[in-house]
Structures are given as structure tokens and as C-alpha cells.
Amino acid sequence: MNREQRAALLAEEMMAFQALFEPYLEGLLPGEGLEQQTVADAMRYSLLAGGKRIRPFLLVSCHKLCGGEPGQVLPLAAALEMIHTYSLIHDDLPCMDNDDYRRGRPTSHKVFGEAMAVLAGDGLLTAAFETALQARVEPALLCKAVQELGRAAGLFGMLGGQSIDVESEKKRLSLDEAQMLRMYAMKTGALLTGACRIGFAAAGVSGERLEIVTEYARELGLTFQIVDDMLDKTGDFALLGKPIGSDEKNQKTTFATLYSLEQCEALARQHTEAAVGAAQRLPDSDVLVALAEYLLERKK
Asked: Predicted confidence band at 230 (pLDDT cuts at 50, 70, 90)?
């Protein structure tokens, strides 16, 4: 399968996934008539704001690669997206990055206030684990999958990476390359790696194939972050839906502050090639290969 064919396959698979996933996601949170309606509205506002849904798509795609059915793991995919969304709500708060726009509209704290934004993030994190346990997977496999979810989100995953980022910004420390790579492996890479590992764990796959997809996801995460750092310098607000120059404003160490844009492009291609190489060691991996190629070229 050539690159054009892979791109067409990816577009078809993503469209089919979104047609299944979006209605499912929308049905998970309550609608009207609650005494605590404001926080429920805040949770829905951010969760249903769109986005690429890369992480849940990757989880479902990896599960399919192992012979599973998408419907079995939709709750796990939704849980992962809830955790990602909660992290964005908190990341945008004044005590973090203090951003006013996300996905093309005002951030949660701008609409609902800081207290409700904090609670909305907390609510989504809590709902994620309640939702994950609804997956139609054997109990022993579900336990492994939920363990992967918690690790990806927690101290040794996304949260840990975010804490390093916050501390370095607060102390005005410039991270070196090794420190930055460790931070991004947790802050950005952990949920992408978790998506792959959860999909495999829910299908009962371990050993060499699990290690290969983990390698793929780690390289994918680095590509994703390098491109994200470049877009913070060169992107278009109309496409990105969030402010340009936020990293510079907050004096963050990024790939785009350590390297020139040309060097960043070369690094992104290097990590994409590594991701593709890993994916090609797995059977029927055209979607994973196409996703790596897509994330390298993305503009939003």
C-alpha cells in the first residue's frame, strides 16, 4: 500500500470511528435538570468541543489490530479522551498557561469561572474511571487496561510531565535536551503510549508485540510534540483554535526554542521514520503508519 492509499484508508477509518465515537461520548454525561448543572455543563462544554480524537482513535485502532471489536473498548477510549480533556482544562487555567482560547472558542475558565473549570476537570477525571470499567472486556484484561490508563495519566505519566513543566517555568529554568525529552515523554507521550498499550492490554496481547507498539507510540509522541512546538511559532489561530506564541509568552523550553525550525523539521521526520519502522514490524499496520505520516504534516 502506497502513501496515498494509506492516507485514504486513514481518512476512512477516522470518519467511521468518529461516527461511532461522538454519539457515544455525548451520551455519557447528563443533560438538563441537575442541581449541580453548572459543573455538568462545564464538563460537556470541553469534552464535546471537537478535536482530533487522536488518542481514542489510536486505542481503538490498536485493539482492532489485535482482533478486537471497536464497541468492546469504546468506554476505555472515552475514558482516555476525558482524561485528555481534563488536562486541557487545567492547563489553560491562569495558574498554568493562562490561555483564553481552546479549539476555537473561549476556554472553560473564561466561560464558567476558575472554580467551575477546576471542578469540571476533576469531574472528567473521576468520570473517566467510572466509564472505563464499562468496557466489554474480560475482567482480568480490563484490570490491566485500567492500570495502564492510570499510569499514563498519573505521577509517572502526563501529570508528572506537567509538574516538571510547571516547576521549570516557575523557577525560570531552561531545560536541556535530555530533561526536555523526559518531560515530553510523560507530558505528551504518556497518553499516546497509553492508548496503544490499553488497546493491546484489552485484547490480551503482551510480550514482543506490546513492546513494538510501545516503541511506535513513543516515537509518535515525539513527532507530535515537535510539530506542536513548531506550530506555536508558525501556526494559524484559525486552524489551531488556540493562541500562537503561548510557549514564548510563558518562557517554556520547547523543541522550537532549543533548535531552529529547520532542525525541528529534520527531527520530526527522524522520529516519524522510527515510528513507521516500528509499526511495520506489526501485521496489518497501515493505519498506524498512516497516522504517523499524518501527524508529521498536520497544520492544526
From this structure: very high
